[in-house]
Amino acid sequence: MYSKFVRSVAAAFVSMIGSQSQNKIVDEKQAYIDIIEKAREEMQIAERYFETVSDPDLVDHAIFQLEAARKKYIYLLKCAQSQGINLSSKDVLDETDKGMVM
């Protein structure tokens, strides 16, 4: 069910960027990679937000936002792995260093 969702998001992303490549598989893999990179950037933004807030209500919000971003990123990594999409080991190592294990 979730892989269908990710495939549909990837397909939508490919159509949004207007790729007309003859090799649909390459486009789909690149779309996965692009989506994962965007999720990683969202997680980094959430980390910076968490590090800068001081108001107790905003700290709670920042924690929820950070956890949601992490879960989304891990989920997308797992989906990519199940689809046989190889990511650079640097990307995965960066996140496992922070205690995030796939």
Summed up, the helix count is 4
Shape: elongated
Which percent band covers the strand fraction? under 5%
Unreliable runs: none
CA-atom Rg in angstroms: 15 Å
Residue-averaged pLDDT: 77
Task: Give the helices and strands, then pairings.
Blueprint: H1 2-17, H2 24-52, H3 56-82, H4 89-96
Helix pairs in contact: 1-2, 2-3
Please describe what this structure looks like.
This protein is an all-alpha fold and 102 residues long. The chain has one domain (2-96). The protein has helices at 2-17, 24-52, 56-82, 89-96. The protein is elongated. The two termini are 19 Å apart. 12% of the residues are buried. The mean pLDDT is 77.
Keywords:
DUF2508; elongated; 102 residues; mainly alpha; DUF2508 domain-containing protein
Give a brief description.
With 102 residues, this protein is mostly helical. Helices cover 78% and strands 0% of the residues. The mean pLDDT is 77.
